[in-house]
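User: Can you model how heme C sits in this protein?
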Amino acid sequence: MNKTLFMTALCSATLVGGAALAASSLSDMEQLGRHLYMDKNLSLTSSQSCATCHHQNYGFVDPTNSRDPYRTMVSLGDDGVSKGGRNAPTSAYAGYSPIFGLDEYGTYQGGMFWDGRKTGDVLGDPLAEQAQGPPLNPVEMNMPSVEAVVDRVAAANYASQFLKLFGPDAFVDANIAYDNIGRAIAAYERSSEVTAFSSRYDKGNLNAQERRGLVLVENFCGNCHATEAAFGAPAAVFTNYHYENIGVPVNESLLADPDSVYAIPDNGLGGFLGDPAENGKFKIPTLRNVALTAPYSHNGYFPTLTAIVSFHNSRDDWPLPEVGDNLNITDVGNMGLTSAEIEDIVTFLYALTD
Ligand code: HEC
Ligand code: HEC
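Assistant: Here's the modeled complex, given as structure tokens:
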């Protein structure tokens, strides 16, 4: 082979190799999780998958809500009628949330969902446990039982991958299989396809206004939306996975929707624990991809980023909190930011998009 030919062959081999690498950069476990995550057959009428409410193109939230945050704040269930009572948070970057419990200062931390109720105590992983919830939730995927979900997976075209990873008897015990379904989905959610750390912030590629916004976020938001890498993450996830009541108002239009299970007061963490001292507290959300994930807060009250940041800044200008108890009055509510500073912050938040 002459030199030019050899180089051409080498180059095209590299190109083909590169494309194949991009398509298969997920491990076997992550790929299986991806199949499960995308599989509409995990819902009763085969109408919805995890991706229906947590879509890649929309920062892993519900596209319906994201596209029309003024009118749709919660997701529609598989039955085509029922709606949830809380806005779907992103499924990305959730995998760093530790097992639910008290931290060294005696503050609740970790777990999954707005109220932490998927603790991670059963499987040792809150994210894997969370993934077991939606298929069986009547206002979500609405399947009748663990066995019914496992039967669907056993009949899927990717069932052989499941058997390859978990052994030839993988479907014999439905409960064991269901645990592995949760683990595989969690692996995908933690993969580089979902939890990408590929934003302009990660690339250190911020313009002057975004840099001003970052400094403001570090100073005014960092106590909650932590700006330093922690929890084993390679960079900041912009939450410390603690719980706070920042005083989000009642979402009146959601309350008026007879198909939504939203009822007030939603006590959040306090409701889960049955402890009034935690009433009104919700898990501090990540700010990654937040420009794509409208509407904002647990009940979707805020249609825009400017609205929710302005609310953090001057809460007294807004309607009364849904839960008045345990309100955070030290870090939130009276920040004294100017409208130019709020704009800097919002501009920075856009730079957190993967
Ligand atoms: C019908 C819409 C819908 C479907 C389908 C759905 N989810 Fe969700 N998801 C939600 C809502 C709403 C919440 C918040 C509920 C709450 O906090 O009480 C949520 C919460 C979560 C969270 C918690 C994030 C956090 O930070 O606490 C993760 C992770 C998640 N979903 C992943 C999944 C996976 C995996 C599937 C598929 C097995 C799935 N979801 C299916 C609507 C949906
Ligand atoms: C005291 C802790 C605390 C501080 C400080 C704080 N936040 Fe928050 N933030 C929260 C909590 C808790 C929520 C969710 C509240 C709820 O849904 O009830 C939230 C929600 C948000 C959301 C909505 C995210 C989503 O996915 O719905 C954005 C955006 C946000 N905060 C930005 C900021 C910015 C910017 C700052 C600084 C200017 C800031 N926050 C300061 C606790 C805090």
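A couple of observations from the model: Confidence is low (pLDDT under 50) at residues 1-23. The pocket of heme C (ligand 1) is lined by residues 48, 50, 52-54, 75, 77, 84, 86, 88-89, 91, 94, 112-114, 127, 130-131, 134-135, 140-141, 185, 283 (CB under 6 Å).
User: Helpful, thanks.
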